[in-house]
Design a protein that fits this description.
With 53 residues, this protein is mostly helical. It contains 2 helices and no strands. Keywords: Membrane, Transmembrane, Transmembrane helix.
Length: 53
C-alpha cells in the first residue's frame, strides 16, 4: 500500500469533516454543501478500505 495514498485519503476525510462541521455551525447551513463534504469523507473511507484489503 502506497503511503501517499493513505495520507491523501486521510487528508480528504479530515478536510471533509472540518468543512462539514463548519457548515453545520454556520448561520445559514446549506444541506447540499454539507452532503458534498460528507461524500468526501465516504470517498476517503472507501478508498482506504479497498486499498488496504
Amino acid at each position: 500500500m502506497d503511503m501517499n495514498l493513505i495520507r491523501l485519503s486521510l487528508l480528504v476525510m479530515g478536510l471533509g469533516l472540518f468543512f462539514y462541521l463548519e457548515e453545520n455551525i454556520s448561520e445559514k447551513p446549506n444541506i447540499l454543501r454539507a452532503a458534498i463534504f460528507v461524500s468526501a469523507i465516504v470517498e476517503g473511507c472507501l478508498c482506504m478500505a479497498f486499498r488496504l484489503s
